[in-house]
Amino acid sequence: MKETIILGIETSCDETSAAIVKNGRYLLSNVIASQTEIHQKYGGVVPEIASRKHMEFIMIICQEALDKARLTLHDIDGIAVVPGPGLKGSLLVGLSFAKAVAFALEKPLIGVNHIEGHVYANFLDKELPETPFLSLVVSGGHTSLLLIREIGKLEVIGQTRDDAAGEIFDKIAKYLGFNYPGGPIIEELAKKGRNDAIYFPRPLLNSDDFDFSFSGLKTAVIYFMMEEKAKDNPVNVSNVCASFQKAIIDILVYKTFKATRMFKVKTVVIGGGVAANESLRKEFLKEAQKKKITIYYPPKKLCTDNAAMIACAGFYKLERGIIDSYNLEVFTK
Ligand code: KG4
Ligand code: ZN
After folding, report:
1. Nearest CA, atom 14, ligand 1
2. pTM of the model
3. CB proximity list for 325: less than 8 A, separation 6 or greater
């Protein structure tokens, strides 16, 4: 069988990543230069700094990915890259670099939507599930419920109307005085708290659509903290984290499984940074077992942004002849 080697490139936010994947299934290398520490002192990603760092890292990271896979650029059959959504300046660095490499090598350029990439983080060591399947992508930039009827295509059936799930974790963590990214910190604190200690609202839970809204939940947590402070009550931060985390997970679980009934699908694929959350994984698994649904979630290290998932998605697109021209442009949303 002919081997197909894809170089994946991901620069949509604050991670510069390059990966080499063989036949969509075998991860030969996945190199990530994280800028987390650089942005931490600002409490979030600073776009201008992010794009400058991508420019510094992109060549080095791609070379490292090739070296680790013991390959050279001439072994590559296609270059998969993210044109969006993401930060414009950051995306431009990865896309311009990928275009130049594809042009010089006369190899196909494959644009992979970043959200779609998160779905494929699940399939690096397994067969693709049968279509149709549903996917929930929950990250710092996105909360999207997707219906995949055909590999290489996706329909957005619901998304957040305001903040993304990960963004809410980050904002609450910042309010509580913790570092960025807030998700892992809140998860750790939540382990020591009771998730039924405080009732926080679950906005849009019973809406007719599959959209999400988290800004009201954020406001409720902030008001709770302010009121307790005004009353001079000591606040158990672990209880706040556990109760807030439970509210987010309840919304995500409820809406996702409502969609499985509506679209009559038997498989749910989870992805994105927030999918690394243990409580979220447990709750999805519990509900899936009850409803006899097969659930996929990626290895933790592939939940957050990486180029392996982009290369994997790129392979399946190339296999189906879905490639892009050099006119491919970046898009932010
Ligand atoms: O997918 P990702 O790396 O970037 C985007 O595409 O946005 O996701 C990063 C987000 C951050 O908001 C971070 O707080 C969140 O994922 N996150 C978590 C956990 N680990 C990362 N949220 C909750 N629990 C976690 N364990
Ligand atoms: Zn992402």
Report:
1. 183
2. 0.94
3. 109
What single-letter DSSP state applies at residue 74? G
Q: What residue ranges define each of the domains in the chain, with the CATH number in brackets?
A: 5-119+303-319 (3.30.420.40), 131-297 (3.30.420.40)
Which tens digits make up the pLDDT trace of 245-269? Answer: 999 999 999 999 999 999 999 999 9
Ligand 1 touching residue 86 (CB < 6 A): no
Task: Please give the distance, rounded to the nearest whole angstrom, from the Cα atom of residue 205 to the centre of ligand 1.
Answer: 22
Confirm if 18 and 62 have CB atoms less than 8 A apart: yes
pLDDT digits (tens, 9 = 90+) for 127-168: 999 999 999 999 998 999 999 999 988 899 999 999 999 999
Question: Sheet containing 294-296: which strands, arranged edge to edge?
Answer: 155-159, 143-148, 133-138, 267-271, 294-296
Q: Which amino acid is at 158?
A: G
Evaluate: CB of 13 within 6 angstroms of ligand 1: yes
Q: What angle do CA 6, 276, 206 make, to 5 degrees?
A: 110
